Amino acid sequence: MTDAADLADRVQDGDLRLYELEEHADHETAATARRLLVERETGADLSAVGQYAFDAADADANIENAIGGAQLPMGVVGPVEVDGGAAAGEYYLPLATTEGALLASVNRGLSAIRSAGGAQARVTKNGMTRAPVFRVQGIVEAKAVVEWVEENVDRLREAAESTTNHGELLDVEPYVVGDSVYLRFAYDTKDAMGMNMATIATGEACELVEDETPADLVALSGNLCSDKKPAAINAVQGRGRSVTADVELDRELVEERLGTTPEAIEEANTRKNLVGSAKAGSLGFNAHAANVVAAAFLATGQDAAQVVEGSNAITTIEERGDSLYASVSIASLEVGTVGGGTKLPTQAEALDVLGVRGGGDPAGSNADELAEIIAVGALAGELSLLAALASRHLSSAHEDLGR
Amino acid sequence: MTDAADLADRVQDGDLRLYELEEHADHETAATARRLLVERETGADLSAVGQYAFDAADADANIENAIGGAQLPMGVVGPVEVDGGAAAGEYYLPLATTEGALLASVNRGLSAIRSAGGAQARVTKNGMTRAPVFRVQGIVEAKAVVEWVEENVDRLREAAESTTNHGELLDVEPYVVGDSVYLRFAYDTKDAMGMNMATIATGEACELVEDETPADLVALSGNLCSDKKPAAINAVQGRGRSVTADVELDRELVEERLGTTPEAIEEANTRKNLVGSAKAGSLGFNAHAANVVAAAFLATGQDAAQVVEGSNAITTIEERGDSLYASVSIASLEVGTVGGGTKLPTQAEALDVLGVRGGGDPAGSNADELAEIIAVGALAGELSLLAALASRHLSSAHEDLGR
Amino acid sequence: MTDAADLADRVQDGDLRLYELEEHADHETAATARRLLVERETGADLSAVGQYAFDAADADANIENAIGGAQLPMGVVGPVEVDGGAAAGEYYLPLATTEGALLASVNRGLSAIRSAGGAQARVTKNGMTRAPVFRVQGIVEAKAVVEWVEENVDRLREAAESTTNHGELLDVEPYVVGDSVYLRFAYDTKDAMGMNMATIATGEACELVEDETPADLVALSGNLCSDKKPAAINAVQGRGRSVTADVELDRELVEERLGTTPEAIEEANTRKNLVGSAKAGSLGFNAHAANVVAAAFLATGQDAAQVVEGSNAITTIEERGDSLYASVSIASLEVGTVGGGTKLPTQAEALDVLGVRGGGDPAGSNADELAEIIAVGALAGELSLLAALASRHLSSAHEDLGR
Amino acid sequence: MTDAADLADRVQDGDLRLYELEEHADHETAATARRLLVERETGADLSAVGQYAFDAADADANIENAIGGAQLPMGVVGPVEVDGGAAAGEYYLPLATTEGALLASVNRGLSAIRSAGGAQARVTKNGMTRAPVFRVQGIVEAKAVVEWVEENVDRLREAAESTTNHGELLDVEPYVVGDSVYLRFAYDTKDAMGMNMATIATGEACELVEDETPADLVALSGNLCSDKKPAAINAVQGRGRSVTADVELDRELVEERLGTTPEAIEEANTRKNLVGSAKAGSLGFNAHAANVVAAAFLATGQDAAQVVEGSNAITTIEERGDSLYASVSIASLEVGTVGGGTKLPTQAEALDVLGVRGGGDPAGSNADELAEIIAVGALAGELSLLAALASRHLSSAHEDLGR
């Protein structure tokens, strides 16, 4: 600890910079020194932050200027049977959140789904995208660049794929706005979420574009990707996995387990998730899909900022006479089971609970499976919340009748 | 531990349900039992999940079916001087993430801001919203309900505020779609993020609406709120805090510290954040504001699913001759310094680092301060990423000249 | 004609400019000269364009560089009974279009509505907006300007209203993005569509803002108005009239007159207008409301480019057991019965058919009435097209059974 | 006239229906009879409506329940040199509108463009779309249908193209939302706007889908087309022609002809068209492109309701040292030179003025040419309005200095 105090002193003396500590001590000591420094400067006590259960050196790829760990409660919901394209069998889903009642709600939904024999799920589209923007002289040059790109997709693929062992270039879609040309590259990144893979591969392809055309790269991301922004292009075209989960519940099941009727749930969905979202100018036609996406992302080491795209979900409810059909379609769920935060201890354990840690066989199947299970979790959350809204209304309707 | 094993057995025997364990044991034991059960059922090892550093009983309001904790690396960036409406002085900003290079990038931006004497920040609007949807017979009745609401805002306020010690009803905005009436209630929830407060207060106001008009409540949230969905209504009208941070950097500072020019950063911002986002049909005209929002939210106990709304940000860059003006305006940043996840140990410590734990004086000032600091962090992230994009291009431009 | 030929010669000789002809001849002659010139230059025959039935001098306020008239077929649909806030009684609706089958379709819908005893309609909101953008130094100044505006609404109203005999300032809503401040002024412009009135009044108010605050006007329209652009702000907050029309049709009526069932129409609406539009990232949740808006606009002298905002409509369909409820809510229908193209002969006659030419009593009631009737026309169009889609499906379903 | 009066009597007596008159008289008489009837019923005088200059029988494909014609003033702007993919040479552009100052404004812009040697224009994408929606049992079936579609594009093409002599199926893009499958068919419809061609061809393809898969057609249009609605799918992916026009103007030209500076125009564009539209949640990042689109559509016989999609335009302005670069990119401009309203007399003449009436050689080139010229007109309108805003500001700035 002496060493840490000494490092903290040196930072305070202006002798060292806060980010240089790992050059002078091991990762634990560096983090301790930073806590000391921040405690001195702010008066805060950072003892809980210091009680992290991972090896600071192992987190080196995940953070800079480390001071320790943030701890969120983790719980588990399920089990639930999933009939998926990749998922098969029963799953417990670990969720990390600080929002009380969320797991109880999802669990109630899963319980109803379980009683119905489980949910179906399918990944219907897959592609991680990166869209650089190039400067050209004007529309004449833009058109020429687009034509070159369309005629040279094979060369672009060769360049892009030269940077990766696993990734495959699926598509390059050009967009033109005046003297800017955007090329949206889409990759199959297998079990990796793939943002880095897509970026590096696209960087290589951009060099080819710059070499062979008059286009000049302005930014490797031109926001048509679109990463961590609420964008229609993702909601319409998808990004990462497009995945749907659905279930059909008997009327009695709805009434007994969810305390309401198919008609009431359908009405709540129509007025709230469809018409309400329409009036709000929304890209999310659901009740709270982001809650489940966020909690599953935090538990399993996904990128929390990509909850943004994970909220591009449409929930549909259909009364089918003796049953209720419910579905959630998430357009752009960006998940991986390798890389990023998936190697950290609690995250790796959570992936193990789902049986999807590491690369799948075939490649990509673990990430597909994870996407399908999260979609089922989101479906459960939708069912449960819509039922709660509908039944509260029903009960108040009953009270009305009693008056 | 015997006790936990016994509980796990009873769950496996169908004797107990997974969520009932806290009725038969203390919270730690219940969580241990669930880990045991999940380990048996899935073969996963949950030892890291079991090494959490908070009191399970204290997290009872944050999670159900607890099995332990998720741990993410936390680091710190800064210090940076903030001239805010509520913020004043130097701040270290704690961030929790698993995305490598994020803190380094933000820190580089903050360093440039620091050299410029710090950033300005202001909360320009504040209001947590909840928008129930009511069923009416048709447009004639809808119009009558809207008129009643407009004439009875005081009574609605009285009803709503009867449920809260702190919250104040700011506004009720009616929206009509056919036979659905949506009322968007906006509250000043002071230092609380306020979703629960707004929901409870609105529930009380809804009873008054139902008593006095022919409208029937269908759902307490009709998605015009709009919580955890990417919706234009939030990007346009705001939700939680609307907050802007900005800074003016000397040209030399840009060149020396960011390795590029004001012109190049402006161009990258225009082609990427403005035109690119426009073409993407986006509500987020920024580079990666959600990254900073997410990392700050995780560190300080905010609701991770509300990163969705936090991504409704517009970044502007303006070359001003001898300087560069940069700003980030986040339309709907939903933060609190009381309630939710803010009481958990690592989160409380992170708030202490910022000096904003608990209720502010005056009420609301701590949450304002937190919003302003996060906005400054997002500004730093934008500057840093835009500069990286711009300088990479510049360097390749230099290579071009060398050919 | 000699005179016209002479003028055409002089333009060809470079002696006169094309737009200067009215300075040298009467309006008819000037138009004739331009036709001659264009005929010579392009080889086109403009005889039909020359057969216009209005006085060229009267159209001087509507066009420059006149060459004659464009003629579109006009037809009429109805009659239909409307129970509106301003509308009352039976109406024939004149429509001008070149799209075959449109009037037949709308007429079929109106016929069904007529059989149901007519439609209800209400204007639920009214306000023509203009939103200038100001440059400020940064967020600190922006906040000060916003505060000044909020404290000086009365002075802004006085300034704005000094420019108009009829218009009333309803509201000024400030929006801040970095160093830009947008003020969205909303006016009750009575029976005028009001864009000019709002622009002039806002211009006056802007001078006050510039005089009293450090803000500099950059553009009198900052696109938060938002005129003739497809913008969420209009779909959410409304512009011009927000108007809803609805009707309840007996099941037998649906079956006999529309050849389908309430269930089938509801399903078509849900999958197409709600879920399909959701997936399309749309601000228009309807089948073809713009068709009726456009045809009514052309017939009655409205601004054709404002069809853009008129397409911000949500159609809802609800099977109610023995009946079908249908509604169309147009968020931003910008109409006037004075000014603009309303004085031209065929347009004035079309307004006379509706009984809404000129200023209403009370002021604004004619424009309200026009808005309500157009909404009923749009409702008829929606019903008819949805029924056609649904019944085609039904008939093919019947064929399926026959196989 | 006796005959018409007699027909009108019979309608009033309930003996005939308003739409049946063409079965009992020629088209002129039928229209006259309807005018009589409407005059009697409403007291309106329809003499101007009766003075139309086309043959009522010829308009039979364009209207039902005809009463005559709507007449709008038509003017002409230009000439302007266009260097296009299809357009080449000088053009006068006919515009029909009732909005005073519009032609003067566009003409001022064109005059500046002309001084700069003309504008460039290119169609960068072309495809008219129709997207039916099918009902399936759930996601498992949806996935199977999508796979069948992807494997049977050739059969779908064969079916679709069997209905048309000219159209070519370019692409079929599937979208899944729960138990709804949307297939977006895109066609090259050559010189026709092509909505009807696309609908008929898609109808045939739908039969194949229904025959070969479990999918049931619910609606031939599922709103992912998306016709006459303000939808991101069109703004992002395009519909009809995606077309860009641009120009580079010398600084002196800007100063002398537009009375302002490149810097001032760029600032107005950034704060208004980019940032303002961003804050408005808009799909239209332009000043008033819809004005030119609408006026050109009315003059040349296009579908006025498709002005909606024509407003999906992005304007960019770039100060380039000694010059100003300006561009307008319209994502979804739906135009044709055959069919629809293009055969009507004034419309045909207007197309002749442009030299694009009827089918082009090669097929499609006339519609491309029309699209390019309209884009140049829109560019002129943008330049002119932005310059007016910028110079008004400059002049007031000058006044400020004079104080």
Main β sheet profile of chain A: 10 strands, mixed
Q: Which CATH architecture of the largest domain in chain A?
A: Alpha-Beta Complex
How many structural domains are formed by the residues of chain A? Answer: 3
If you compute it from the alpha carbons, what radius of gyration of chain A comes out, rounded to the nearest whole angstrom? 24 Å
Please give the number of β-strands of chain A. 10
What best-fitting shape of chain A do the alpha-carbon axes yield?
Answer: globular
CATH class descriptor of the largest domain in chain A = Alpha Beta
Please identify the oligomeric state.
Answer: homotetramer
Largest interface: A-B, 134 and 134 residues
**Mean pLDDT reading of chain A:** 96
Structural class of chain A comes to alpha+beta
**The CATH topology of the largest domain in chain A is what?**
3-hydroxy-3-methylglutaryl-coenzyme A Reductase, Chain A, domain 2
Task: Name the poorly predicted regions of chain A.
Answer: 397-403
Q: Superfamily at the CATH H level of the largest domain in chain A?
A: 3-hydroxy-3-methylglutaryl-coenzyme A Reductase, Chain A, domain 2
> What share of residues are in beta strands of chain A?
15-25%
The percent of residues in helical segments of chain A reads 40-55%
Order of helices and strands of chain A: HHEEHEEHHEEHEHEHHHHEEHH
Distance between the termini of chain A: 71 Å
Number of helices of chain A: 13
Protein name (chains A, B, C, D): 3-hydroxy-3-methylglutaryl coenzyme A reductase
EC number (chains A, B, C, D): 1.1.1.34
Pathway (chains A, B, C, D): Metabolic intermediate biosynthesis; (R)-mevalonate biosynthesis; (R)-mevalonate from acetyl-CoA: step 3/3
GO molecular function, one term (chains A, B, C, D): hydroxymethylglutaryl-CoA reductase (NADPH) activity
